[in-house]
Specification:
The complex is a heterodimer of chains A (373) and B (404).
Chain A (H helix, E strand, L loop, with lengths): L6 H26 L4 H13 L8 H27 L7 H18 L5 H30 L3 H24 L21 H5 L14 H18 L1 H11 L1 H6 L4 H17 L1 H10 L10 H11 L4 H24 L7 H15 L1 H19 L2
Helix pairs in contact in A: 1-15, 2-3, 2-14, 3-8, 3-11, 3-13, 3-14, 4-5, 4-6, 4-11, 4-12, 4-13, 5-6, 5-11, 8-9, 8-14, 9-11, 13-14, 13-15
Chain B lengths: L1 H32 L7 H19 L2 H25 L4 H24 L26 H11 L6 H9 L3 H11 L4 H15 L18 H4 L5 H9 L4 H19 L1 H11 L1 H6 L4 H27 L11 H11 L4 H21 L3 E2 L3 E2 L2 H16 L21
Helix pairs in contact in B: 1-10, 1-11, 1-14, 1-15, 1-16, 2-3, 2-4, 2-8, 2-14, 2-15, 3-4, 3-8, 3-14, 5-7, 11-12, 11-16, 12-14, 15-16, 15-17, 16-17
The chains are: A mainly alpha (373), B mainly alpha (404).
Chain lengths: 373, 404
C-alpha cells in the first residue's frame, strides 16, 4: 500500500467519495425513471432502521438489516482474505452454496445429537465444504497455473448444477414436488437473537437475525488475527505483495495460495449457517441470492480490513433490507436498484480506484510541500 | 429415417443455441487477444438484449433494435476500456462491476417502462423478412408530411399542413425537405428509435423480430434424400443473425491472421512494449479491440431478445456470457475452434432437453445436471492442463504502463 495519502483519507475520504459517486449515479437512474431519489433514500432508511410504526418497527427492521449484514460479513471477509494473497475469489457464490450443503447435511443427518454438538459440527461442515470447494481452484492455480478467476467462475456453475442434482434426486422430501429437503428438527435450527437474548429486554420482533451474526463478528476477529498476527497471514500477505520476494524469503507461494483460498472458501461457506440453519431451516435451491458477488463490493469498500468489511457490510445490509421496503412503497422502483448501487460501488471503488487517487494525493501533497521551505 | 430426422433437428437446435455463444466468444476473442480480460461479456449481452427488445418494441423495427443493442453494448465496452486502459484498473473487477450494474439496471428500467415484471412486452412476429428488408427511411414525401403532422402539436391534420404550405410557409417546406434528404440508414434507424420514444409506439415497419430466412432451392431439394433435409432443415430456415455469426468466424480468422490490424492486435496482447516501441499506440489498439468486442456482444444480445426469443426476460443471458468465456478458453483463443467449441456446447444444451429421464443404452440415465455442468467441467480440466494446454495471451490482464 502506498503512503501518498494520510491514513484517514485512505480509509475514510476515498471510500466516502466512491460511495457518494455510486449514490449520485443511482440518483440519476431514479430521475431517469421519473422518481425522486430522495424519496428512495427515505424508504431505504425506513426499511433499514424502521420508523417506529406498526408496519416498520425499529427492532424488527434493525434485526433484519443485521441479518443481511451477517451474509456480507462472511462473503466480504472471504474476498478480502483472498485479496491479501493477490487472488480474486469470484467463486464466493458457489462456495457459499456448497458450504450451505455441508451445514444442511449436518442438520439433517446428525439431528440425534443435542444442539450443543450440532452447532460446532455445522460450523465445521460449512467451513470444510466451502473450503474444499475453494481448494480445487486454489490447487489448480498454485500447481497447474490455471487462472483462479476463470476456475472459480466455472465452479460457481458446477456448484449450482451439483446442488440441483442432489436436491432433485437425493435430498428431496419424499412425496414433495419442489426440490427441497425436509425441514430440520427444532433443535437443529440456529436460535434467533430474539430467542437467545430476549431476556435482556431487546425487541427484534420477527426478524431473522440469528446467532450466526455473533459467529460473523468472531470471524472478523479471527481474520484480523490470522492476517496480521500470525505467520501464515504474514506469508500470505508477502505472496500477495510480491511473489518473487516471497520465494527469496523462503515462502512457498503455492502453499499460501492454497491456504488463502481454503480460508476464503471456509468463510464463504459460513453463509450456510445464516441461510440454511438460521433462516430457511431446510436445504433448498438458490439460497445464496448474490451474496457472494456482493462480497466483492463489500471487500473493495472495506479496503480488505475486517473493520472496513463490517462497516461496508452494514451499509449493504441496510441497502438490501431497505430495498424490500422500497419495492413495496414505491410504484415505479424495484429493489434491483440496490444491485445497481452495488455495481457502481464495485466500479468506482474497484475498477476506477486510480481515477481520483492521484488528484487527491496531489491536494494532500501540496500543503505538505509548501510547509517545507 | 426417423433417427436421421431427429438428429437433423438436434443439430438444428444446437446451431441456434450455439449462435449467441459464437458471437460472444468471438467478441471476447478480440479484446482478450489484445490483452484485455473480459468477464463482462455477460453484462454486455444482457444490456444489449434489453436495449434491442425495448427499441424494437418502441420503434417496430428489429434493425433499430439491433443498432440500439450494439450501441448499449459498445457503451459498456467503452466503460470497461475507460477503467482498464485509461485508468489501468483491475480488468476482472471492472468486468464484475459491469455485470452487476446491468443485472440491476435492466429490471429497474424494464419495470419502470413496461411494468411486466422487468420484461419487455412480447415482440410480434410480423411478416417474415424476405432476404434483407430495409428499415424505415423517410424518403417518401407523404411519409415525411405525415411525420411532421405527428410531431407538431400546432398541426392537427394533413389538410392543415397542405393549407399552410400553399400559404407559402417556407419554414414547413424546409422541414419537409430536410426529411426528404434521405439520411443514411443508421441515422434513420436512430431517428425511428427517438420517434418511437416520443410517441409511445409506432408501427412503421412490419417486423419487430428476426425471423427465419428460407434459402433458395430449399423447396426444390426437399425430396432429395439426405441432402434435402440437411439443406432444408439444418442449413436453411435460420434468421439472419445465425448466418452472420457463422460468417464472422472466417472473417475473424482473416482479420486476426491476415491483416495489419490483426497482427497489431495480437502483438498488443503478447508484448505491448514492443508495439509501443514500433510507434503504435497501445491504448488506441486496445480501445479498438474493446469496441469490436462491444459490437459483437451487442449482436449476441440482440439475437437473444429479438431472434431466439421474442422479448427481453429478466436475466435472460443466464450465464451464457460466462459459457462463451469458457468456450473461448477451451478454443485456446482461436476463431475456428471457437466455432467448434460453441457448437459442442450448443449440442450439449440441445441434448439436455432430450435426455431428461431417458435411459441411454450402456450408460443408463444421464443426469441432466451433469450435461449442464459439462462445459464448465471440461474447461476446468483443460485449464488444468490435463488435455492439452490453454495458454492465454501473455500480456492479458496486465495494464500497460508506458515507460517515461
Amino acid at each position: 500500500m502506498n503512503r501518498d495519502l494520510p491514513r484517514w483519507a485512505d480509509w475514510g475520504l476515498i471510500p466516502a467519495l466512491n460511495l457518494a459517486l455510486a449514490f449520485a449515479v443511482s440518483g440519476l437512474v431514479m430521475l431517469a425513471v421519473g422518481e425522486s431519489p430522495l424519496e428512495a433514500v427515505y424508504w431505504i432508511w425506513v426499511g433499514a432502521v424502521g420508523d417506529g410504526s406498526a408496519i416498520y418497527p425499529h427492532g424488527e427492521s434493525i434485526g433484519q438489516t443485521l441479518y443481511f449484514t451477517t451474509y456480507f460479513i462472511f462473503t466480504g471477509l472471504a474476498v478480502a482474505v483472498a485479496f491479501h494473497c493477490g487472488l480474486f475469489n469470484i467463486g464466493g457464490e458457489g462456495q457459499a452454496y456448497i458450504g450451505g450443503l455441508g451445514v444442511g447435511l449436518v442438520c439433517l443427518y446428525l439431528d440425534f445429537l443435542p444442539f450443543i454438538l450440532i452447532l460446532p459440527a455445522a460450523i465445521l461442515a460449512g467451513a470444510l465444504f466451502g473450503g474444499a470447494w475453494a481448494f480445487v481452484p486454489g490447487y489448480l492455480q498454485a500447481k497447474r497455473g490455471s487462472h483462479i478467476v476463470i476456475t472459480t467462475i466455472m465452479f460457481n456453475f458446477i456448484a449450482s448444477s451439483l446442488m440441483i442434482y442432489l436436491l432433485v434426486n437425493v435430498l428431496i422430501e419424499p412425496g414433495q414436488q419442489s426440490p427441497a429437503s425436509r425441514a430440520f428438527a427444532e433443535h437443529a435450527r440456529m436460535p434467533t437473537i430474539q430467542d437467545a437474548f430476549g431476556w435482556t429486554g431487546i425487541d427484534l420482533g420477527l426478524s431473522d437475525l440469528n446467532l450466526s451474526f455473533l459467529w460473523a463478528i468472531a470471524a472478523c476477529v479471527f481474520v484480523w488475527v490470522f492476517i496480521w498476527h500470525t505467520r501464515w497471514g504474514y506469508e500470505i500477505r508477502t505472496v500477495g505483495q510480491n511473489e518473487r520476494a516471497a520465494v527469496y524469503a523462503g515462502i512457498s507461494p503455492a502453499r499460501n495460495i492454497i491456504l488463502a483460498m481454503v480460508v476464503s472458501g471456509a468463510l464463504a461457506g459460513f453463509v450456510g449457517l445464516n441461510a440454511v440453519m438460521g433462516d430457511h431451516h431446510r436445504l433448498l435451491r438458490d439460497f445464496v441470492l448474490g451474496y457472494g458477488f456482493a462480497g466483492i463490493a463489500v471487500s473493495l469498500m472495506g479496503r480488505n480490513h475486517p473493520v472496513g468489511v463490517v462497516l461496508a457490510a452494514l451499509l449493504f445490509g441496510a441497502l438490501y433490507q431497505g430495498g424490500f421496503v422500497l419495492d413495496v412503497e414505491m410504484d415505479n422502483v424495484t429493489r434491483e436498484l440496490v444491485v445497481v448501487v452495488q455495481g457502481l460501488v464495485i466500479l468506482f471503488a474497484g475498477a476506477l480506484e486510480h481515477m481520483f487517487r492521484p488528484t487527491i494525493a496531489r491536494w494532500f501533497a501540496r500543503p505538505a510541500a509548501a510547509a517545507v521551505p | 429415417m426417423d433417427l436421421f430426422l431427429s438428429l437433423i433437428q438436434l443439430l438444428d437446435s444446437s446451431l441456434r443455441l450455439a449462435t449467441p455463444l459464437v458471437l460472444a466468444a468471438l467478441a471476447g476473442l478480440y479484446c482478450e487477444r489484445a490483452g484485455i480480460v473480459d468477464i463482462g461479456l455477460e453484462g454486455k449481452m444482457l444490456g444489449a438484449a434489453f436495449a434491442a427488445a425495448t427499441t424494437a418494441y418502441l420503434t417496430g423495427s428489429v434493425w433499430a433494435g439491433l443498432v440500439a443493442g450494439i450501441a448499449a453494448s459498445v457503451v459498456l465496452a467503452l466503460l470497461h476500456g475507460f477503467a482498464c486502459i485509461t485508468h489501468r484498473g483491475n480488468q476482472v473487477v471492472s468486468g464484475v462491476a459491469i455485470n452487476t450494474l446491468v443485472m440491476g439496471l435492466t429490471p429497474v428500467l424494464g419495470h419502470a417502462w413496461f411494468r411486466e415484471g422487468g420484461q419487455t412486452p412480447a415482440l410480434s412476429n410480423g411478416t417474415p423478412f424476405a432476404g434483407v428488408q430495409l428499415p424505415y427511411v423517410p424518403v417518401d414525401r407523404d411519409a415525411a408530411m405525415a411525420l411532421i403532422v405527428q410531431q407538431d402539436p400546432d398541426l392537427r391534420t394533413l389538410r392543415q399542413l397542405t393549407n399552410r404550405l400553399e400559404a407559402g410557409d417556407a419554414d414547413l417546406a424546409a422541414r419537409i425537405d430536410a426529411l426528404l434528404v434521405a439520411p443514411t440508414p443508421v441515422i434513420s434507424w436512430i431517428m425511428a428509435g427517438l420517434q418511437g420514444f416520443a410517441n409511445g409506439t409506432v408501427d412503421f415497419v412490419t417486423a419487430t423480430r428476426f425471423t427465419p430466412i428460407e434459402l433458395p432451392l430449399a423447396e426444390t431439394l426437399a425430396p432429395v434424400p439426405i441432402l434435402g433435409p440437411v439443406y432444408g432443415e439444418l442449413i436453411s430456415g435460420h434468421n439472419i443473425l445465425v448466418y452472420a455469426a457463422v460468417a464472422l468466424v472466417p472473417l475473424t480468422a482473416w482479420v486476426l491472421y491476415r491483416t495489419r490490424f490483426g497482427l497489431r492486435l495480437r502483438a498488443v496482447g503478447e508484448n505491448p512494449a514492443a508495439v509501443d516501441t514500433a510507434g503504435i499506440s497501445v491504448a488506441r489498439m486496445r480501445y479498438q479491440a474493446v469496441i469490436v468486442t462491444g459490437i459483437l456482444c451487442g449482436i449476441a444480445g440482440a439475437y437473444l431478445s429479438t431472434a431466439h426469443n421474442a422479448a427481453f426476460v429478466r436475466d435472460m443471458t443466464a450465464g451464457k456470457g460466462y459459457l462463451a468465456l469458457a468456450a473461448l478458453i477451451f478454443a485456446k483463443w482461436r476463431p475456428v475452434p471457437v466455432l467448434l467449441t460453441c457448437l459442442l456446447f450448443g449440442f450439449l444444451e440441445a441434448m439436455e432437453a432430450r435426455l431428461q429421464g431417458v435411459s441411454v443404452p450402456l450408460i443408463g440415465e444421464v443426469p441432466v445436471q451433469l450435461i449442464q455442468a459439462m462445459p464448465y467441467i471440461l474447461t476446468v480440466v483443460l485449464l488444468a492442463g490435463f488435455i492439452g494446454r490453454a495458454v492465454a495471451p501473455k500480456a492479458s490482464g496486465i495494464p500497460y504502463v508506458k515507460e517515461r
